[in-house]
Amino acid sequence: MTILPPFGRLATAMVTPFKKDLSIDWDGVSTLAQHLLSTGHDTIVVNGTTGEAPTTSDEEKDQIIKVVLEAVGPRAKVIAGAGNNETSHSVEQALRAQKAGAHGLLVVTPYYNKPPQAGIEAHFRAIADSTDLPVMMYDIPGRTGIAIEPDTIVRLAEHPRIAALKDAKGDVASTSWVIKRSGIPVYSGDDILNLPLLSVGAVGFVSVCGHTVGPQLREMLDAWFAGNSARALEMHQKCLPVFTGTFRTQGAILTKAALNLMGLPGGHTRLPLVDATPEQIAQLRQDLIAGGVTLA
């Protein structure tokens, strides 16, 4: 069974750089989008968890989409996060993303509410029905408090605009069955499981570490799909210090710190996130160097 990647192979959920006064660094947004493009990305995901979407306004989200689109032009797709724990607002965000020019939507499972599977299914269908854009569902029970069960994924995969699944469930066995049963294109949403998920049929990555090791992730993907599993494994192992180091605390915090260390505009975080401490930055520096990342 050959499953085609609707959003290319390599996407990264981009951070939103904030200035010291916590306004958005718009030049930084453009610079980071071009950085991702130059390091092998097919797609850039904005307004997701790593983009600190819970702390950006709807108007800011619209503008982020537009600035990234202008920065990358026709060379990459832009997917916009459009999901939260309230369905009507999620639909509104989806409509705004389409109007702003996004090529697709990333929709997370409703969080905190803990709806039953029937509610989860209805939530995704309502958003998918609201625009003409393809939807990537996002299953991350560690954040949302509830998983999208395999039967629900299989049913939703039949929807004509539900095009893919970002899988951060951490259950490769379950994902194996979902791929076999539905054929839905699956993107790894957990960097340290990128290679294991490829081995059971994933089509690509929606990464966080693509900010720092994008070329290595591109090489891993190219090697894997060329049939060179040994080279893919070599790249996976090379990146392990970065995969681990980026998530010693919340991913956006250390990704921004890493970008700052690389001389790129990572910027600051908005509460309730807090910037990395000097001790955390010192450890991160070691992790990045061990993973072969060039620092400024």
From TrEMBL:
SMART domains referenced in this protein's UniProt entry, alphabetically: DHDPS
CDD domains the record matches: DHDPS
Enzyme class per UniProt: lyase
UniProt-listed Pfam families: DHDPS
GO BP: diaminopimelate biosynthetic process; lysine biosynthetic process via diaminopimelate
Keywords: Amino-acid biosynthesis, Cytoplasm, Diaminopimelate biosynthesis, Lyase, Lysine biosynthesis, Schiff base
Gene3D superfamilies on file: Aldolase class I
GO CC terms: cytosol
InterPro entries, per database record: Aldolase_TIM (IPR013785), DapA (IPR005263), DapA-like (IPR002220), Schiff_base-form_aldolases_AS (IPR020625)
Protein name: 4-hydroxy-tetrahydrodipicolinate synthase
Record carries keyword Lyase: yes
Function: Catalyzes the condensation of (S)-aspartate-beta-semialdehyde [(S)-ASA] and pyruvate to 4-hydroxy-tetrahydrodipicolinate (HTPA).
Pathway this chain belongs to: Amino-acid biosynthesis; L-lysine biosynthesis via DAP pathway; (S)-tetrahydrodipicolinate from L-aspartate: step 3/4
Reactions catalysed: L-aspartate 4-semialdehyde + pyruvate = (2S,4S)-4-hydroxy-2,3,4,5-tetrahydrodipicolinate + H2O + H(+)
The enzyme's E.C. designation: 4.3.3.7
GO molecular function terms attached to this record: 4-hydroxy-tetrahydrodipicolinate synthase activity
Keyword Amino-acid biosynthesis among record annotations: yes
